[in-house]
Structures are given as structure tokens and as C-alpha cells.
Amino acid sequence: MVRMSVLADCLKTMTNAEKRGKRQVLIRPSSKVIVKFLQTMQQHGYIGEFEIVDDHRAGKIVVQLTGRINKCGVISPRFDCSFGDLEKWVVNLLPSRQFGHIVLSTTYGIMTHEEARRKKTGGKMLGFFY
Length: 130
Prior knowledge:
The protein is α+β, with helices and mostly antiparallel strands.
């Protein structure tokens, strides 16, 4: 089969491993977008350390799971989201205002919806996690 979305495969693999109660998960292939997405998840404490393994091909990532992910998914197609529309998307995607994050790809880099709100910018929606 042909891989349509590497990010979607990554997030689905992590969700399934988390449901099974695994402590770590191997993600392949690797990409810059996946690494940035994992960094934002790590900043908010949803995953532990992750290590990028260079195998002279597409690369692999070994992620340490902490048991905090309830669900993470990709938003496809990558909808445009302006600064004013952020609240509408938060209400539609996240279970509560208190927790959960939507990840956006903005002109300032890949960040969560809260950082985008502070910088007063919009962007393309990549995915969410809570």
C-alpha cells in the first residue's frame, strides 16, 4: 500500500500503542513535521523523550509514552484557520477548554492554538491531541 499521510500513520500508531499500555513505540518513516509535532506534544507533557534513529533511509523515531494521551489525530485536509476562526475549531475538536491542543503550521513555525492566539496569527491545521 501507498502511504498517504506519514503524520496520520504516526499519530494512529501512538494512539494504538497508548491504548495497549505500551511504554514506547517505534515510528517510521520520520519527517520534519512529525519531529516538530512530537516536540509540541513533549512541551505539554503528553509524551516523554524521543530519539531519532538514522538508518540511511527514511529514518525512525522511538518515543517514550507516559500514558497521558487519550486521543491524537490528524486533520485532513489541512484546513486554513484564521485568527478569528480559532475558537470555532477549538469548540468542534477538543473535549474541553481546560485541556487539549490543536497544532497549527503558521508562518512562525509549528505551534499550538494557544501560542497562535498569543501571536495573533492563523495557519494550516495539522492535528490535535488531548
